[in-house]
Sequence to fold (185 residues):
Amino acid sequence: MPTNILVLRIGEKFEDYRLQVIDNRFYFMEPQLNAHNKAEFPPMHTAEHILNGTMVKMFGCPRSRNAHIERKKSKADYELAAAPTEEQIREIERRVNEQIARNLDVTIEFMTRDEAAALVDLSKLPADASETLRIVRIGDYDNCACIGAHVKNTSEIGTFRILTHDFADGRWRMRFKLENCTYVE
Ligand SMILES: [Zn+2]
Fold:
């Protein structure tokens, strides 16, 4: 719902909000919240976006619905019919690093749900989600509705490494880290 009193939550910035005039009054349009991402380490969380985009492109699976992002080591689960081969796993790593090495700008755009539907999968959005969504774009590679903190450019991420992985009951769990990350807080 639009509000005319703005109380920022931890991790939010004023510029996350968009002003709109309704009946001659200003309202702050609330971005779509994705609460669990808000305090995550930005380079790791941005790498997760690229990883999700890569998994969707390679396997046609949904983005990870269960990821745990930490500074030193993160993990993400993907719904897959079969375990990826070692060759495919190296290919995931190669593609993620390929995008990181393109020095892509990470940009934020606010748009209506209808506008966003053409760019991102909104099937996970809760029914009471706000009309205005915050879309995070990683160059021309990935778009995702997200309120989290991201790096400004993929050059800050470093090198993405898949550490371990296992597969059970249609769930592939993988753990990853970043090497030579240059992000400065
Ligand atoms: Zn995000």
Notes: Confidence is low (pLDDT under 50) at residues 32-37. The CA atoms of residues 24 and 142 lie 37 Å apart. The pocket of zinc ion is lined by residues 37, 45, 49, 136, 146, 148, 150 (CB under 6 Å).
